[in-house]
Amino acid sequence: MPRLDAFLKLAREQGCSDLHLAVGLPPLLRLHGDLLTIKFRNLEERELLGYLNEVLTPAQQQRFKEGRDLDFAYHAPGIGRFRVNFYRKATGPGAAFRYIPEEVPRFETLGLPPVLKQLLDHQQGMILITGSTGTGKSTTLAALIDYLNQTRPLNIISLEDPIEFVHASRQAQVVQREIGTHVPDFVSGLRSALREDPDVIFVGELRDPESIDMAMTAAETGHLVLGTLHTTSAVKTIDRIIDALPGEQKEQGKTFLAQNLLGVVSQLLVRTVDGRDRKAVFEVMVMNRAIAKLLMSDRTHMIPSQMQTGRAQGMQLMDQALLEAVQAKEIDPDEAYEYAVDKRAFRPFVTDASLLTQMEDIST
Fold first, then answer.
1. Which residues contact 304 (CB under 8 A, 6 or more apart)?
2. Cβ(262)–Cβ(126) under 8 Å?
């Protein structure tokens, strides 16, 4: 058994989501958003490399020796499946392990916005799930794929880096392809997917102008495209896509978004009131004529006001979602206050008075 498995077993026994290993530090665990130190010696480079090499193929060992980062999925027998990143930094190698539950998450269990089911009913267009790293985007996308897989006879092609949740085909055929294993990159994977009779294409990450452009092409040509971006709001997502396009394509990009972007869901993971878990909170934008008009006239800064008044269409700003969760006593009000853009409505719920003082100091 690889020696790494002992650390992974400890992480799972403690209910932790992540394990971090780095030279000069003891192993670290992430529990409910906080990093905790394992009572262990500081790791030396030779020791850590020995741990890492035990779970790598010869080809992966060579790539890592050449200084390249590695992204892959690792299954520890009797412990679970993990998304893994091996990397190098100034002080030596490091690794991050993220636990992937064996059971694919269900739509209702995650408390996803109901309007997403309506968006998934479309035959073509683009749905984007956004948020910073570690906010549960992959889990949300897995639930959306599972919902389609359980309800409709579709050909679903996923491009992932690496494959996380494994989907058994139900009503749909789910074809999962891994970047670096089955296709060299997202752009090549998207190009191939268009020749594989897809109904739905899931792109694990729209990380560059080329992959964004190919995903837009797929959505325009009669496919439903699900993708993720590392943006933290609907407006920032739209601006990011437009900014990523070459100057001569920006107008075309705005037209595409106005006509083919179905919706944007941005999410946060916020600590629950008892501190023992984290809850996903969602901002939702659904494309309508008013938002499309603002987009085409370069007034994206006015989109939040349309979202604020679009509750009947399933829309909500992140501040609205956070405040509702605070009022329902589902999330920590202090953490919600820190995440909120307009903090005034959250002040009556704050329990740590020092937060109010800090924010007042910043504002002055």
1. 234, 235, 317
2. yes
